[in-house]
Amino acid sequence: MTETRIDPTPERALAPEPSGxxxxxxxxxxPATPDGPPTPEKSLLHYLGLAASGAILLLVVAIxxxxxxxxxxxGSTPLTVLTSSMxxxxxxxxxxIVRPVTPDEIRIGDVVTYQIRSGSRx
Length: 122
What we know:
Structural class: alpha+beta
Radius of gyration: 32 Å
Strand content: 5-15%
Helix content: 25-40%
Largest sheet: 2 strands, antiparallel
Order of helices and strands: HEE
Number of strands: 2
Oligomer: single chain
Distance between the termini: 79 Å
Mean pLDDT: 77
């Protein structure tokens, strides 16, 4: 029997070096990488997209901190107004953060949420 061996790392073809006027043309602006084809230069649009992505990520993290960490640290609970019962002050869909208070702390004009059965989420 004959044994055939396959080399897993094929040799890469080397691109010819530009010479004369070709070195000063557009091909000189695109550097060749040792691992593969030349990589184009990144445009301003690429960097603007990168900055926008970073800003969106920071915004999402800030909103998560505001809606999750801060209420938990203060003993509050985030709720969403589901009906028009609190209009015109709070329209449906408004996110509110509530905390337990004693009846003595409630004043006229305060927005109040309540539970029918104490400790129940219903």
